[in-house]
Amino acid sequence: AEEMAIAHHGRPMVGDVAQFVAPDLPLPAGQPLQSLPRLPLTTAPDGTLQGQLIAAPHTRQLLAGKDTLFWAYNGQLPGPLIDVAAGSTLDLHFENRLPQPSTIHWHGLPVPADQDGLPQDAVAPGGQRRYRFTLPADFSGTCWYHPHPHHHTAEQVFRGLAGAFIIRQPNDPLAHLPEHHLLISDLRLDADARIPANTAADWLDGREGQFVLVNGQLRPQLHVAPGSLLRLRIWNATSARQLRLALPGASWYQVGTDGGLIERPQSLQQLHLAPAERAEVVVRLPATPSSPYTLQALPYARGKMVGREQTQSLPLMQLVPHGQAVVTPALPELLRQISPLPAPVREQRVLMAEKAADGPVPVQFLINGRSHDPERIDLYSVQGETEQWEIINGSDMDHPFHIHGAQFQLVSRIRDGEETPEPWLAWRDTVNLTHAERVKLRIRQDLPGLRMFHCHILEHETLGMMGNLMVKAAG
Ligand code: C2O
Ligand code: CU
Ligand code: CU
């Protein structure tokens, strides 16, 4: 009854929804895809990998004669790639040269709660700290990092702060394939090539830009040999854009999710990546290709929304056949084995919904009927105990649910009263819920401490669609 009362209230209009028209600026496009810059790491005598991340204002000229002021890690857009083996210990020195408090949150990584860049652990402007953690030997994945301070997460990410973080398992069955990284982000520029603040409509629907970039580039090109098998890791690092990806003409297979490889390659038509979600895919190009293959984002309706929907396919990048055809071996049938999490000892329930409100943003974004309060614990778990969480979207739009501290296994999705079991096992930390959808997932937090769970539309998270989970130490 509670959820029925909140759900389907009808989405209010915001004055500037229809007025958002971004200028069509001649950004350079079609250049060769650049690989993500790597974070230099030095190895201490005890094997600890040490590095440094500095968040600071950074100016670029994307358009001749016009400065665009970004906020960047180490002056790089996207931030530097951290690429380490499972089991690594990292010691990362962070300096905040932004005019706001900031943190670094290690999205998807099972790091101790006090190293996870929580809003409660912010680094003041001009301040610094170290993030130290050891990754579990059995953890691998395609993760990322971004700021997570109170009230400023959305802005710090849309101004440029985000980077990729890969954790590799030994004996990776796809290690022989050429690998490329595609970090997808949104950029909005005004007519003077400045990054404008959020409008009220952005706070409602989530911010999108007129440019969707891959590794910071507009529609880059990647040259590939005909017949090749390519491994791609793809990040949706946008604030709010649902990416329904297609690659017409080539065959492609999903081989991994947020938390590493799945058991068997899954042939893909489309790949849906919600904000913050990642995937690993393998692309097979025909031996006699005709023309370039365009990775594109298909139109997607994010619920019963007003205005601003992407209505046309958006080209993101091209794979351009180039050179001699190569013969590549078949994909392995079994990539790894994933054990299903055991029967849960506890159930938790999370309702994501909106409520009409007075103010420039005419709704409040709530979890279990409440707006985020950093001082309030919303749910309790116990370290090492498997739980089943039911997440309910009681709103008129999509909300991607994300939880810190552990990867989960989706059990089923429920739509119109019909429950569909997940067809294959996978480790994830983010799952999209379309409007009026529910999902069941199993999760086990292996480390004690404070964790957040929230909508990963960063505007919704920033406005309070976030809860605190306290994981009590076992025993
Ligand atoms: Cu990437 Cu709390 O999130
Ligand atoms: Cu996270
Ligand atoms: Cu949301």
TrEMBL record:
GO cellular component: cell outer membrane
Alphabetized Pfam families for the sequence: Cu-oxidase, Cu-oxidase_2, Cu-oxidase_3
InterPro entries: Cu-oxidase-like_N, Cu-oxidase_2nd, Cu-oxidase_C, Cu-oxidase_fam, Cu_oxidase_Cu_BS, Cupredoxin
Record-annotated Plastocyanin-like domain positions: 61-171, 203-298, 363-472
Residue intervals passing through the bilayer: none
Subcellular locations according to the entry: Cell outer membrane
Highest taxon in the source lineage: Bacteria
UniProt-recorded name of the protein: Multicopper oxidase family protein
Species: Leeia aquatica
